[in-house]
Amino acid sequence: MGEVARALPMSFTAYLEMEEGSPVRHGLMGGFPHAMAGTSKTHNLRRIFW
């Protein structure tokens, strides 16, 4: 049988390059990008003031 392919962690530089051209925002956790859900204006204000 063949071996299972393993994903390698992404470098911060590669993450920034990916984010620059992506219509979807991601967070980088443990070297792996994760798509983030959309936000509302209220959510964004809470992040700034709380």
Report on this structure:
The chain has 50 residues and is of the alpha+beta class. The protein has a domain at 12-17 and 24-49. Helix content is 36%, strand content 16%. The protein has two helices and two strands. A two-stranded antiparallel ribbon has the order 1-2. A hairpin with a 2-residue loop joins strand 1 (26-29) and strand 2. The longest helix is centred in the N-terminal third of the chain and has 9 residues, at 12-20.
Order of helices and strands: HEEH
- Counted by DSSP, the helix tally is 2
> What is the tally of beta strands?
2
Instruction: Report the average pLDDT across residues.
Output: 83
Question: Which structural traits does this protein have?
Answer:
50 residues; alpha+beta; two-stranded antiparallel ribbon; 16% strand
Brief overview:
The protein is an alpha+beta fold. Helices cover 36% and strands 16% of the residues. The chain has a domain at 12-17 and 24-49.
Show the helix and strand layout.
Elements: H1 12-20, E1 26-29, E2 32-35, H2 41-49
Antiparallel strand pairs: 1-2
